[in-house]
Amino acid sequence: MKAFIVSLLLGTIGVPALPTDQKSDPIVKKLDEERFQKVLDGEGELHLVDLWLKTSDELDSARYNPDRQNVYHLFTRENPQVSQPMLVGNTGLLGLTNYDPERRTIIILHGWRSTATSDVNTVLVPAFLSAEDVNVIVVDWSAGAGSINYAAAITNTITSGESVARFIDWLNGVTGATPGHYHLVGHHLGAHQAGVVGRHVDGNIAYITALEAAHAGWILNGDKLRPADSSYTEVIHTNAGVMGYLGTLGHADFYPNGGVNMPGCSSQACDHARSYFYLAESLLTGGFTGQRCATYITAMTGTCYLWGNLHMGGLVPKTGSSGIFYLRTNSRPPFSRG
After folding, report:
1. Which of 187, 207, 286, 327 is the most buried (most CB within 10 A)?
2. Domain hosting residue 72, numbered range
3. Distance between CA 16 and CA 23 in Å, rounded?
4. How many domains does the chain have?
5. Any domain includes 247
6. 3 state SS of 63
7. C-alpha angle 18/245/295, rounded to 5°?
8. What angle do CA 162, 63, 192 make, to 5 degrees?
């Protein structure tokens, strides 16, 4: 895997023409009442997608086999830039890697049309390794997430999550690691996938951080992220109600700057990406103190006067904490105001 090169896309985004409805392609399920919606992919490009699942979408999803096609990249402080592969069932290969079951393990799940080298990984992998001696496993599920067919990608999000859970169960079984060693981090579709992983692992995952969980196709979706998917589930909203999920999904939901229109950003793509930049900074410096709010509406308007603060992000799960929180950030690094 090549050395990381980080680039944030802030340019003008084009939108394709409206998809045509094919009478020969029957509708199987409505993923949302509003059929055609604009969705940002993990690379900052905007697409007009069809949220009514059709027979062709199911056929597209059926071609994706996550047990065979997902790729697991291990990074440690011994190999911070070039990954080591991990294969389910291959204990010999596992023994040649720098994986240490005594360390905490971070698993990062990218979003729609992203890969192992996408910005969410290039930002977070070095931040985690700088902050603590951990195992970082980047899941490349681009075989399922890479399709321009967003409806199929939603289905693949779920099947991939179930497969990642099987990977974790295998890894724990051969190394003695436990679910309490794990921190799952997911962006966009990967945020909901983290929930699927957590609820299918044999045991309780310690910590989930959901970054800008996808909005389109998930409001009525029974497989969306939920608090009980880990012992402590935290959500960071930076484009809420536009590309990111509007309401609460975790034990603690943070709405920096009201959850939309991040300072220093001039595009939705920038807002969408800020979530993982904020998390990366929180791993290294702390900061980001949120003020408790009564509802997500008051968090989005910044009218929060309830007693109690909570730090956003960070290395350690704040198990037992819950609530909705508002905070303000700077327009450039360091983003935290303390």
Report:
1. 187
2. 27-327
3. 21
4. 1
5. yes
6. coil
7. 140
8. 35
Question: Could you tell me which residues come within 8 angstroms of residue 222 by beta carbon, excluding any fewer than 6 positions away?
Answer: none
Instruction: Give me the CATH number covering residue 231.
Output: 3.40.50.1820
CA atoms of 280 and 313, how far apart (whole Å): 8
Distance in angstroms (rounded) separating the CA atoms of residues 235 and 227: 10
256 and 287 in contact (C-beta within 8 Å)? no
Find the angle CA(292)-CA(295)-CA(296) to the nearest 5 degrees. Answer: 95
Residue 14 lies in a domain: no
300 and 44 in contact (C-beta within 8 Å)?
no
Question: Which 8-state DSSP code applies to residue 312?
Answer: -
∠ CA 327-234-277, rounded to 5° = 60
Asked if residue 6 is part of any domain, the answer here is no
The pTM assigned to this predicted structure is 0.92
pLDDT one digit per residue (tens) for the chain, 338 residues: 444 323 322 233 344 444 444 457 899 999 988 999 999 998 889 999 999 999 999 999 999 999 999 999 999 999 999 999 999 999 999 999 999 999 999 999 999 999 999 999 999 999 999 999 999 999 999 999 999 999 999 999 999 999 999 999 999 999 999 999 999 999 999 999 999 999 999 999 999 999 999 999 999 999 999 999 999 999 999 999 999 999 999 999 999 999 999 999 999 999 999 999 999 999 999 889 999 999 999 999 999 999 999 999 999 999 999 999 999 999 999 999 97
Name the pairing type of β-strands 105-109 and 135-140: parallel
Neighbours of 309 (CB within 10 A): 12
Q: Is position 256 within any domain?
A: yes
Burial of 315 by CB count in 10 Å (0-12 exposed, 13-18 middle, 19+ buried)? middle
Non-local CB neighbours of 48 within 8 Å, separated by 6+ positions: 15, 16, 17, 18, 19, 36, 37, 38, 39
Which own/partner pairs from 15-22 qualify as long-range (CB within 8 Å, at least 24 positions apart)?
15/46, 15/47, 15/48, 16/47, 16/48, 17/48, 18/48, 19/48, 19/49, 19/50, 22/54, 22/56
